[in-house]
Write a structure and sequence with these properties.
Layout (H helix, E strand, L loop, with lengths): L1 H22 L17 H12 L14 H14 L1 H6 L1 E5 L3 E6 L8 E6 L19 E2 L2 E3 L7 H16 L8 E6 L8 H11 L6 E10 L10 E8 L1 E10 L3 E2 L8 H14 L8 H10 L5 H8 L1 H15 L1 H7 L2 E8 L6 E2 L2 E10 L5 H12 L5 E8 L10 H13 L4 E7 L15 E8 L2 H5 L7 E3 H15 L3
Helix pairs in contact: 1-9, 2-5, 2-15, 5-15, 10-11, 13-15
Length: 477
Amino acid sequence: MIGYVIFALIAVFFAVVLVRTLNFKPKAQSAVSQEEVTFDRDAAIDALAQLIRCKTISYSDHTLEDDAEFEKMISLLPTLYPNVFKACSFDRLPDRGLLFKWPGKAPGDPAIMMAHYDVVPVNEENWDKPAFDAIIEDGCMWGRGTLDTKGTFNGVLFAADTLISQGYQPEHDMYFAFSGGEEVSGKGAPNIVDWFEKNGITPSIVVDEGGAVVENVFPGVKQPCAVIGIAEKGFMNVQFRNCSAGGHASSPKPHTPVGILSQACCDIESNPFDAHIEGPASQMFDTLGRHSTFLYRMIFANMWCFGWVIDLLGRKSGGEMNALIRTTVAFTQMQGSSARNVIPPEATMVANMRLNPADTVESAVETLKNVIDNDAVEITVLEGTNPSLVSRTDCEAWDKVSAAVLETWPGCIVSPYLMVACSDSRHYGRISDKVYRFSAMDLTSEERSTIHGNNEKVRLELITRAVEFYIRLMKKL
């Protein structure tokens, strides 16, 4: 009798799993228009080239920066985007914040388009082409910032310049907000948000860099995927420290500071933070999982019983999927004695952490303490910020971004996702729950690998496609 009951329960289990899998079908996407977008494509490419030739490199040590290069770029803007300067007001805010206001026809919550115009440093000896000459060759433009994010900066302003020249005016005010210190967590973007708060402005939508149109990034999905960040992880740089009396290495105690920290490192790596398959990750699995192969659809349709599979794969393999579902810890620095035969009086190591939306700086520190379970290891947060607010996808703002994406990249799958890197848009959670992170480009894995790396370059077609996207988006707002 018991055997029949067990058999019946197993049969019911498999039936539920099968039915849920068969019903886990792609959601219908709204029909979109295929209206042709016209503008001067050569001029858009030339405008970006002139931006790239400005060495707007930001450093944590501001004395290394060349203010003249930043001023050179800003002085070019009226020439590159003359219609913007005719129709829009322009204000400079502290710490290289630039703010344009394009007046709308009627009162209402405004839209905000964002980008940053500073770039990371370059090791030019490792580049195949000069990093700031904007050389065009084989259908590509080489240069630091082509992808991150002068391409976006140019896309926003050239789109607005084009629409203004065609006599278009948005229904409500539109702001273009740019910072010149995003790469070093500068104050430009926070100062702009302060300005919005002070003036009582609540945007209807905010669009910044982030996701892109990508392929082969989700298990079993072959179609191009346009992933739009609806949140981003927080980050922490954490120092671990242990002290001793030091001494000669010929007569060590059982555990030296380096050994104690090594054990702490091993304990943390062997005990990853808990997985949280919810929020942006859950929405991404629910969207893209429906387009996957049968086996993966079965997993993603039945996370209530197969969520452990995703957790286990993340623990064992790491990588992007793991980063989506949990707080990650990457040990990056370690320091001990300055001499080979001396036990260090102190040893330190540093970890870079990216916080899942379910965690905070405080809760992450508490978890680290519990895992290490050694009061001799001092934990200090060198710097950190909590995860961003999670933006809504059940609203008109999301629908408009999605529609503009589908019009520009027909046939792709639009999906929310959790951005694992940090951007200026995290500051806008103070004033909006409709902040979307999408770099208007379709990027190969090779192209993505050049961001912050060597030989950064962009296909010319992507320069103009970014303009297309913003023209379509702006006409919806």
